[in-house]
Amino acid sequence: MAQGALRGPSDYSGEPPRHPSLRINAKEPFNAEPARRDLVASYITPVDLFFKRNHGPIPVLDDIRSYYVTIGGLAGGPRRLSLDDIRRLPKYNVTATLQCAGNRRTEMSKSRKVRGVGWDVCALGNATWGGAKLSDALQLVGVPYHTEITPSGGKHVEFVSVDQCPEEKGGPYKASIPLGQATNPAADILLAYEMNGEVLKRDHGYPLRAIVPGVIGARSVKWLDRIDIIEEESQGFFMQKDYKMFPPSVDWDNIVWSTRKPQMDYPVQSAICSLEDMSAVKPGQVTVAGYALSGGGRGIERVDISPDGGKSWLEAHRYQKKGVQYVAGNVTSDKWAWVLFKAIVDVNSDTEIVAKAVDSSANVQPESVESIWNLRGILNTCWHRIRLLATPNLRSSM
Ligand SMILES: Nc1nc2c(c(=O)[nH]1)N[C@H]1C(S)=C(S)[C@@H](COP(=O)(O)O)O[C@H]1N2
Ligand SMILES: [Mo]
């Protein structure tokens, strides 16, 4: 860890500048997402517009020469790796979408109140992350590829940050992933020092963060301090008392946190971003555009759009990179990344436009929010609905 990192869990005097168009959900800690149309304007999300999800102040790590990450626990060691040590490992660029488990929470809260940051549909972004593979860093300290359990009984890899979070009583943010995933080079887990070809910004984990593709954002720990091999999964707050999926029957008076596993992969998801709910449109052709993605490296097989609340459906066009046909699972398609979609529908009267995606394992988004309601409001992946008001005299300037 570098000098000057620790300033106290309520000291927000050292926050970085942010783009004025971000929609701020909370200032301290800073939580913000881009506007819907800005989000789907490009396949790669510009760093400035990428959603920002924090649980405490942004650490100030300005003396980069004194920075190191410690790899220890049941890995033997401990070994300190400087940023130069990490940069000397083979560099990979992985395009992966990071999605907060709380994305679309506000919509879930309308059905029945939930606790958490009130996200619209843009608590995600797609970036090209540059860095070393975690599997290579672990190999460097003596943990071979495809290790499920170390001789000393290590089964999980815990990432520990330098930030200070109230939920951890001023301690650091922590999360873990299974060792077998961490030591699998094909899982593409990175120790990332670049985002979209630039040095990582402070908001996104400068100087070094974990990127765990296909898994909820909460496991991609920013501002790494330590990486420890441990016997059981991390006992951190964000693994044990948050980011778990409960059934609709569990509420705050009967919750038993230990009965559920920490959420890892996210399920299939999509949302329309070209339209706001309850907006007025001129009768005629309306463009329905948005994003779709699934967890665990599963591609998007299909995006269905309904112009009439789910009675009839048409298939949207899907795309990632210009001039390259998107085929789920094809080597030319980014397996950890979202697809953008577009469809043109005819709107002649007030109606509800619906989007639902199907992933390469034929998983489909659930129809109703009630069936997946959970008290923390995570993983709202129900069909995304936009109500439109057909307004013949609408002036085109609107
Ligand atoms: N150290 C640390 N890492 C963290 C967090 C945090 O508060 N502290 N938030 C997590 C959550 S919940 C999400 S969704 C992502 C958000 O990453 P971003 O701010 O780069 O978009 O970071 C994760 N990593
Ligand atoms: Mo998150």
From TrEMBL:
Listed GO cellular component terms?
A: mitochondrion
Q: Give every Moybdenum cofactor oxidoreductase dimerisation domain span.
A: 261-388
Q: SUPFAM superfamilies per the record?
A: E set domains (SSF81296), Oxidoreductase molybdopterin-binding domain (SSF56524)
Query: Oxidoreductase molybdopterin-binding domain spans which residues?
Result: 55-238
Supply one GO BP term. sulfur compound metabolic process
Q: Can you tell which superkingdom this protein's organism belongs to?
A: Eukaryota
Annotated region (Disordered) at: 1-25
Co-factor requirement: Mo-molybdopterin
Question: Quick check: keyword Transport in the entry?
Answer: no
Q: In which pathway does it act?
A: Energy metabolism; sulfur metabolism; Sulfur metabolism
Q: Does the keyword Oxidoreductase apply?
A: yes
Q: What is its EC number?
A: 1.8.3.1
Task: Give the record's keywords alphabetically.
Answer: Metal-binding, Molybdenum, NAD, Oxidoreductase
Q: Give the GO molecular function terms.
A: heme binding; molybdenum ion binding; molybdopterin cofactor binding; sulfite oxidase activity
Q: Which InterPro entries match?
A: Ig_E-set, MoCF_OxRdtse_dimer, Mopterin_OxRdtase_euk, OxRdtase_Mopterin-bd_dom, OxRdtase_Mopterin-bd_sf
This protein's name: Sulfite oxidase
Name of the gene: LOC101768103
